[in-house]
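re: that chain from earlier
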Amino acid sequence: MIVLLLIIVVLIAAAIPFALRSFTWNHFTKAMEAEQYDEAEKTLKSRRYRTLFGEYEQNKNLIRLYLGLDRKAEVKEYTHKILNSTVSAKKKTAIADAVYYYFLDREDQPMCKELLDTLKSTKNVDEFEFDQVLYRVLIEKKSEDIEYIERLLQEEETTGSKKGLLQYLEGVQLLNAGRKQEGLKVLQQARKNLKGTPYYRKIKKIMQE
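^ sequence. v structure.
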């Protein structure tokens, strides 16, 4: 009888954290679905959430929330918290990867440079080379990678938004190089493949200038 009671107690003790995690996560997701972002943020920043899910998961999901709300200062703050923490290099890379395009889009040079330093040690050579090209084209406004992008367009069977992004990078470089008519022609092609993305609006703005 005593053994049975002990088993029951252990099972109940094991079930309580699971139930609390489920309740807390459901509360967060329902707040997001209802667009109650203040409540969602409050849940994520709570001591209970950190205790149940851990500091890394807390900061990671806060970054996701702030990305969706376009709160740049908070995205930067919580990205730094993770990059300066003791979590594994793999986890740091995952976060750097997740926010790199966000800061490229906002032309935040210092932050992009910092993220590149993090990505350099863990990403494979080809992926990191592409990240560097993005930095040179979108941040430094250079045009030295036109042939590289053209080669990717020829070698890879790219379609849709992926092809559109490569065309966008080619067109921007042509503009950077003073080849306006060629650049605008390529950007017009890119625009067709980038409908529904932020780059579609960027191209529209460029073509109106």
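Residues 2-33 form the longest helix (32 residues).
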